Amino acid sequence: MAKYLKALAHPARILIMKHLASSNICFCGDIVDVLPLSQSTVSQHLKELKNAGLIKGEIEGVKVCYCIDDIQWQIAITTIQGFLNNTQSIKHY
Amino acid sequence: MAKYLKALAHPARILIMKHLASSNICFCGDIVDVLPLSQSTVSQHLKELKNAGLIKGEIEGVKVCYCIDDIQWQIAITTIQGFLNNTQSIKHY
DNA sequence: TAAATTCATCGTAAAATTACGATTAAAGAT
DNA sequence: ATCTTTAATCGTAATTTTACGATGAATTTA
After folding, report:
1. Is B50 helix (H, G, I), strand (E, B) or coil?
2. Minimum-distance CB partner of B77 among A6, A17, A84
3. Which of A5, A36, A47, B54 has its CA 20 to 30 A from that of B31?
4. CA-based nearest distance A89→chain B, Å
5. Is residue A57 part of a domain?
């Protein structure tokens, strides 16, 4: 729970997740181009998302293709939504 | 967005939100009793949640009664859920 | 084989986070 | 008026986070 939220609690990492969700092409370099951060910093953020289990990277020649780990991400979404639903005053049945 | 997630990205603060959501009595001291942290540390976490706008505290005599800021919390929930829905591969219509 | 490309890792610095005890301020009780 | 209770704030230490440039490893290209 906190692990997932922590992984998402940074603007750069939110943008990475959005970018991976919206684009099929997901090479590391593409993400670097999108973010106003250095290559090494982006690589660090990708590593944190990977450590949280939210994304996975696959080596493809000289490049690395990143994508959302759909199964894990679905678990994270369910976990977070469960928390949100349990704490909101307006109950949706 | 990141502001909300950051505020929630700590086990203690998640517990505080859960506790505030489930109990009507919400004095600061009660929260201190529930968490395995010192009074000053809990006070700091409460401050962060308040800075993020998620909770509000009202002085009641010598005690302070905390509760979730329902309007702000609903906005946060909607924002987070919007993000989650937009990034999940399984779309729910 | 040599050069270039891509990206992870290393080393490091600055800033933020987390935690605690001590102190302080405000209100209530004696 | 003094003491007690409650909770915020202060000061501080340890850790973590964030960011960068430099370096290194792996693969592709020339």
Report:
1. helix
2. A84
3. A5
4. 7
5. yes
- The answer to whether position A92 is within a domain reads no
A93 lies in a domain? no
Question: For residues A22 and A48, what is the distance between their CA atoms, to the nearest angstrom?
Answer: 20
Alpha helices per DSSP H over B1-93: 2-8, 11-22, 28-34, 39-51, 70-87
The phi, psi pair for A36, rounded to 5°, reads -85, 50
The encoded tokens of residue A50 equal: 């990977």
Question: Domain limits at B42?
Answer: 2-87
Question: Per the structure, how many domains does chain A have?
Answer: 1
- How would residue B89 be classed by pLDDT, with cut points 50, 70 and 90? confident
CATH number of B53's domain: 1.10.10.10
β-strands A55-60, B55-60 pairing: unpaired
- Chain A neighbors of B77, CB-CB under 8 A: 84, 88
Q: First CA to last CA across chain B, in angstroms?
A: 23
